Write a sequence for this structure.
């Protein structure tokens, strides 16, 4: 039916809506194939350009053709890339088509709702704090669009009202989130996210590889200690054990038989919760040396901790470690494995080792001599070492002498094997930064490290002993974290300095705060599971709420929270409320309430005369009030003093004269709108 | 959609009526509120979002869903608030001919402290809404059209005041019985044939020259004569102050007679008589009206025209 709709579909509404839809879909650029997102953004761009020219929008035949094209596109994509994202791709394609079809208010609503639905699909891929805040901001925008559509007004008015609407719903959101029943297991399992990208340390070291991680400040994991954390020189986080070398690369061996080693606990016991970031790998990095495998994990040969399944979401592990413990017994094959030499041992390496052997006959002594060699010779610790060829250890030891932990560890281990001491390389992390705000240790990818374990069988030390050649060359590395940096070849490493200056420390504090917020977000919101809910309800004393009762409590609680939200914050009127006008209206209303006939078209002066005649006793007051009012309304001098005078007089009139005011005539008393007859 | 989908005025008569002082006050109890189709769409969307969130145990999705659910429910309050305490007063109507649009004038008052945008008013029988936005503490005139079809007293019937502010998810509405009323003249028919020649009545005393028609002659100036009637040329020719005299006191008179029409249909007769009135007034004749129930003696001018047309409009209707 042809009628003027109250909603106004202005270009502003369309523009903001289209832009918001574009922003909502943007993260899919990383998730979906360019085929899908490309077509979508093409359609969006077209719609954007056609906002001033609605006549050029495609008609229904062209739209139908485009529909077929889009469907074909999605099918082709599903065939090529795999059907996993077909649903999300289809949704994106349909949203693009709807954009082209948007003409009237119904389309605006459908688009806005599609936008919300696309947001939900985004949350299937990522749930971080920043990501979520981004989408909450877009939701606010969509609400503002709907508000603008219905009521219009200045942009500022619409935005402020949308914000207030938004904020008044937050208590309900919190209450429903806490109380809404959670399932212990999903209704159906449909794993959408299945990226194969891995992050962090892998089980191979080739000198030149670990340094990529040294550029990354991304968090590898966080550790929360019960009690004080260990000192920096004891913060070795054990990762893959690398047995095998081909002369250039050191790698781990899968499927080695596991035999429980002897574990001598020594040193302080640290108990901690280690929260791994998703890596898509199965490594956990406990503090050396843990006394038990993590839940959901197991030991493998070489005493490395692995998990049953790849870590795809942020997961916490409860662990305990004795820092000075060592692994005592070992199977014979382990030692044999740890002595295998690659084929490219050079003559000068043998001569170097032979030189040491001649000076000492204990294994420990030889180790010490090797370490001294690194300290006394001009070795440089740098994150930008020169590239090495086929025999990196040899080149590094005798020619370049510039490298970082990977170089030192692998060449040291090689030398040890040449000397007949079983040695293996451990990859992992070293160090970590305390976040004082959160009370936890942050270990970043840039803290990736490699060190050596040698088998010592002397009376001084028995078992696999940790030797860190990097500590000999650059003790700062152990004391402090490495600042990620690049530089020309051979630049010495810059460690994180303690004194950063005002701006630096402010940024560091900000970094800690963000890290802490992110952690809390993941702990309380993303990780809010069935167990978390039960725990919270127990803490609040509401553990009796189960099953149906919980659902009912959720609804009731939500409604109460809505009311609370509305009481706290409401949409306000945009127009500047004129206090003078309002006061005068109240004054006028009061006169009307006495029974005086005051038609709406009566001006202030006429009112003054009429009221003055009716109530001669208060004619003077009435005249003063009217004078002030007329002055405020019509003259050029409006000072705060006069406004205050006016306000005081009117209030005086209203309050004090209220009871003393006689009504004109009881019989003729007119019912004011305040006491309307009951219908 | 602007009219509420469900017409509750038949069996749940919560209707706002004028108070004794003529103002119609919309109180909270008289307001109905129901979801619109966009509200149902939104509910469906939320359900789908909730199912997705429950299945994937995706907590940020829960957060978004609950936020939107709270928001949608909040709008119930705001939509209701957009109508509460509005005050309506009927101010007048424009008299029209049957078949034209009658216009009813109202004054809508928002004495509350917050804005009330997007308030819609429509007569239940008419279907064309008018939208008005009221800032806090202001009044606005509202002119509502109403399609007339019959002559006589036009009662537009129930007025519906509704709104779906702020998000269009819910519609709140209120039925109002105004006491608005308008007079509708009969539709002027075509083809009025004046019966016979105008009734020319000669005056026994001749043309007295006290009318406003053709120039008859000059006379001496009397104090009080309009300066427009002074013959200035004569004064310039030094013939003294003279006043022009105009005749026409013996005006053309027409009788619009019911009995002289031979159409069997009452409405057609009235229609023709109406046309006759309009033509006579346009031709500046004097005209009188003779109907079975009353006679109006000849006259001219807007008041006479209105009296005649009113008689025609209300013919056969009790007052």
């Amino acid at each position: 039916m042809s009628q003027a709709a109250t909603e106004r579909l202005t270009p502003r509404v369309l523009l903001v809506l289209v832009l918001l839809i574009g922003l909502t879909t943007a993260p899919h650029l990383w998730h979906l194939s360019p085929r899908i997102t490309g077509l979508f953004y093409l359609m969006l761009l077209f719609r954007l350009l056609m906002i001033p020219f609605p006549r050029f929008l495609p008609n229904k035949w062209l739209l139908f053709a485009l529909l077929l094209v889009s469907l074909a596109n999605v099918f082709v994509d599903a065939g090529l890339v795999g059907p996993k994202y077909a649903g999300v791709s289809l949704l994106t394609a349909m949203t693009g088509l709807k954009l082209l079809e948007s003409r009237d208010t119904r389309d605006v609503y459908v688009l806005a709702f599609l936008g919300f639905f696309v947001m939900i699909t985004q949350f299937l891929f990522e749930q971080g704090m920043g990501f979520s805040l981004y989408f909450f901001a877009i939701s606010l925008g969509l609400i503002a669009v709907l508000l603008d559509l219905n009521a219009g007004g200045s942009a500022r008015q619409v935005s402020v009202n949308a914000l207030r609407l938004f904020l008044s719903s937050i208590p309900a959101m919190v209450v429903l989130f806490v109380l809404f029943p959670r399932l212990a297991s999903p209704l159906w399992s449909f794993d959408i996210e299945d990226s194969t990208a891995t992050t962090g340390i892998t089980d191979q070291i080739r000198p030149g590889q670990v340094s990529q991680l040294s550029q990354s400040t991304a968090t590898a994991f966080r550790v929360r200690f019960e009690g004080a954390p260990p000192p920096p020189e004891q913060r070795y986080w054990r990762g893959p054990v690398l047995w095998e070398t081909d002369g250039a690369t050191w790698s781990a061996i899968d499927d080695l038989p596991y035999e429980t080693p002897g574990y001598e606990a020594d040193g302080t016991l640290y108990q901690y919760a280690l929260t791994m970031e998703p890596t898509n790998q199965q490594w956990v990095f406990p503090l050396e040396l843990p006394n038990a495998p993590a839940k959901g994990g197991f030991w493998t040969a070489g005493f490395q901790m692995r998990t049953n399944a790849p870590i795809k979401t942020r997961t916490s592990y409860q662990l305990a470690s004795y820092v000075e413990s060592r692994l005592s017994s070992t199977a014979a094959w382990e030692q044999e494995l740890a002595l295998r030499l690659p084929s490219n041992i050079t003559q000068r390496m043998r001569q170097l080792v032979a030189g040491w052997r001649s000076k000492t006959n204990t294994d420990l002594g030889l180790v010490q001599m090797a370490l001294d060699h690194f300290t006394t010779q001009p070795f440089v610790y740098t994150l930008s070492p020169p590239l090495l060829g086929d025999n990196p250890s040899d080149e590094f030891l005798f020619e370049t002498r510039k490298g970082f932990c990977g170089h030192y560890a692998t060449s040291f281990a090689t030398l040890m094997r040449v000397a007949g001491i079983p040695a293996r390389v451990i990859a992992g992390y070293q160090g970590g930064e305390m976040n004082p705000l959160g009370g936890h240790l942050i270990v970043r990818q840039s803290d990736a490290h490699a060190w050596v374990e040698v088998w010592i069988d002397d009376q001084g030390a028995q078992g696999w002993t940790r030797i860190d050649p990097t500590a000999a060359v650059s003790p700062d590395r152990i004391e402090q974290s490495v600042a990620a940096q690049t530089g020309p070849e051979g630049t010495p490493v810059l460690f994180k300095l303690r004194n950063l200056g005002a701006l630096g420390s402010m940024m560091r504090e900000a970094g800690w705060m963000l890290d802490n917020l992110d952690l809390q977000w993941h702990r309380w919101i993303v990780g809010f599971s069935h167990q978390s809910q039960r725990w919270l309800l127990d803490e609040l004393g509401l553990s009796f709420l189960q099953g149906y009762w919980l659902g009912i409590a959720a609804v009731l609680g939500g409604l109460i929270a809505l009311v609370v939200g509305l009481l706290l914050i409401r949409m306000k009127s945009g127009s500047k409320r004129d206090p003078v006008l309002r006061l005068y209206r109240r004054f006028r209303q009061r006169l009307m309430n006495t029974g005086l006939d005051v038609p709406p078209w009566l001006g202030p002066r006429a009112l003054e005369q009429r009221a003055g005649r009716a109530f001669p006793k208060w004619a003077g007051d009435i005249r003063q009030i009217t004078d002030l009012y007329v002055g405020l309304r019509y003259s050029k001098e409006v000072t705060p003093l006069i406004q205050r005078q006016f306000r005081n007089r009117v209030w005086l009139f209203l309050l004090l004269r209220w009871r003393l005011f006689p009504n004109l005539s009881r019989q003729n008393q007119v019912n004011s709108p305040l006491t309307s007859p009951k219908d | 959609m602007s009219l509420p989908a469900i017409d509750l005025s038949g069996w749940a008569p919560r209707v706002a009526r004028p108070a004794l002082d003529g103002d119609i006050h919309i109180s909270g109890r008289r307001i109905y509120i129901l979801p619109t189709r966009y509200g149902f769409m939104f509910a469906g969307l939320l359900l789908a979002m909730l199912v997705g969130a429950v299945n994937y145990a995706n907590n940020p999705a829960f957060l978004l869903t609950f936020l939107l659910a709270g928001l949608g429910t909040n709008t119930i309050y705001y939509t209701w608030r957009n109508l509460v305490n509005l005050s309506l007063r009927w101010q007048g109507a424009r008299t029209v001919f049957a078949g034209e649009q009658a216009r009813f004038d109202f004054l809508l008052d928002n004495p509350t402290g917050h804005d009330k945008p997007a308030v819609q008013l429509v007569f239940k029988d008419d279907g064309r809404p008018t939208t008005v936005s009221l800032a806090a503490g202001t009044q606005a005139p509202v002119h509502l059209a109403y399609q007339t079809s019959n002559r006589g007293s036009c009662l537009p019937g129930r007025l519906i005041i509704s709104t779906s502010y702020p998000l269009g998810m819910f519609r709140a509405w209120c039925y109002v019985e105004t006491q608005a009323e308008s007079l509708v003249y009969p539709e002027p028919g075509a083809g009025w044939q004046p019966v016979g020649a105008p009734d020319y009545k000669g005056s026994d005393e001749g043309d007295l020259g006290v009318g406003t028609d053709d120039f008859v002659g000059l006379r001496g100036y009397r104090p009080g004569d309009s300066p427009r009637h002074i013959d200035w040329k004569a004064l310039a020719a030094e013939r003294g102050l003279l006043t022009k005299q105009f005749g026409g006191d013996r005006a053309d008179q027409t009788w619009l007679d019911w009995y002289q029409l031979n159409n069997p249909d009452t409405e057609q007769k009235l229609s023709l008589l109406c046309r006759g009135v309009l033509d006579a007034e346009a031709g500046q004749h004097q005209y009188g009206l003779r109907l079975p129930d009353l006679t109006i003696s000849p006259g001219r001018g807007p008041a006479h025209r209105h009296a005649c047309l009113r008689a025609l409009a209300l013919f056969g209707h009790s007052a």
User: Anything to note?
Assistant: Chain B touches chain A through 70 residues (CB under 8 Å). Chain B has five helices and 18 strands. The helical segments of chain B are 37-56, 59-81, 232-236, 266-282, 302-313.
